[in-house]
Design goal:
By secondary structure, the chain is an alpha+beta fold. 64% of the residues lie in helices and 13% in strands. The chain is built from 8 helices and 4 strands. It has a 4-stranded antiparallel beta sheet with strand order 1-2-4-3. β3 and β4 form a beta hairpin. α1 packs across α3, α4 packs across α6 and α6 packs antiparallel against α7. The termini are far apart. The relative contact order is 0.08.
Length: 206
């Protein structure tokens, strides 16, 4: 006897989240390209820049239930505010649709996390989870790389000060003149030596 799909008993919401989290974690661990971090795989880019979905990040940090992951996000938001950053910019609210077994769609609260927000969330996660240490390392390294990239871009974009350019040009010219003076002094010393030797020779002949 076949079971009608509509007659199947739906799993409770928290059990569905755990099942989806385990499925996503296995998928990222088995299907990701070799040498590519799973955090890179779930990274998204749109017109607003790069971001990570909090719900997609949760299982990679060892959380099978999103409701428990939210406590880490709240602590990260407090740390973000204390550091002087805009919380709404780093932890932008979002929504994610989830398909239901009966064919419906459920809207779930989510966050668009910046790289810095992910780093803070990893720092405020459960330290007993091995996934937390991996996430802390990844986002610490990547955040530093992003900062260095911005610094290099600023160095290229900032125009040179005209006064500084003039001073550098003057110093360059002074160095060149000093080199020329040294060459002239060396040549004059050679001439003086030759003249002295010539006078000494004349004196002997006489």
């Amino acid at each position: 006897m076949r079971t009608n799909p509509d007659d199947r008993v739906s799993l409770p919401a928290h059990e569905m989240e755990q099942k989806q989290a385990r499925t996503q974690r296995r998928k990222l661990q088995t299907e990701g390209p070799e040498g590519v971090s799973p955090f890179d795989i779930i990274r998204r880019i749109d017109d607003g820049g790069e971001f990570w979905s909090a719900r997609e990040l949760a299982p990679l940090l060892g959380y099978s239930q999103y409701i428990k992951f939210e406590s880490a996000i709240e602590r990260a938001k407090s740390a973000c505010q204390n550091s002087g950053h805009d919380v709404d910019e780093q932890f932008a609210g979002a929504a994610q649709s989830s398909a239901m077994p009966n064919g419906g769609v459920r809207e779930m609260a989510d966050y668009r996390l910046t790289r810095y927000a992910c780093y803070l969330t990893a720092l405020n996660g459960d330290p007993r989870k091995t996934e937390i240490a991996a996430a802390q390392t990844y986002f610490a390294v990547q955040t530093r790389k992003a900062e260095q990239s911005k610094e290099r871009q600023l160095e290229v974009q900032i125009p040179a000060d005209p006064l500084e350019q003039a001073l550098l040009a003057s110093l360059t010219n002074i160095r060149r003149l000093n080199v020329i003076d040294q060459k002239i002094d060396a040549q004059q010393a050679t001439i003086d030596k030759l003249v002295a030797e010539s006078k000494a020779l004349d004196a002997k002949v006489r």
